[in-house]
Amino acid sequence: MAQYRASESKREQFRRYLEKSGVLDTLTSVLVALYEEPEKPNNALDFIKLHLGAAGPEPADTEALRTELADLQQKYNELMEENKELRSKLMQYEPSPDGEAAE
Q1: Which of 6, 18, 29, 59 would staple 23 via disulfide (CB 3.0–4.6 Å)?
Q2: In a shared domain, residues 6 and 50
Q3: Number of C-beta neighbours around residue 86 at 10 A
Q4: Which residues form a coiled coil (predicted)?
Q5: Do residues 94 and 70 both lie within one domain?
């Protein structure tokens, strides 16, 4: 009988821990969302992962982001090169630091 009480006590402590940390509320809200979903998803576990934020980006999304990153990196490099060229042209027309005009 004492062993049963010890086990029950551990269970109760664990339940309080989950409640304190907000796990029970979060799981409840995700399960309620699944219950209220008009068209039940084929994979309930994926639905839960998605709503808990555990699911990573979809592979198609990842590939699109990588493509966008590569395009933006290339544009950045082009703009930096253009900036460098424009600065060098500007230096031809700006007065030198000691106050003399460039010819």
Answers
A1: 18
A2: yes
A3: 10
A4: 62-89
A5: yes
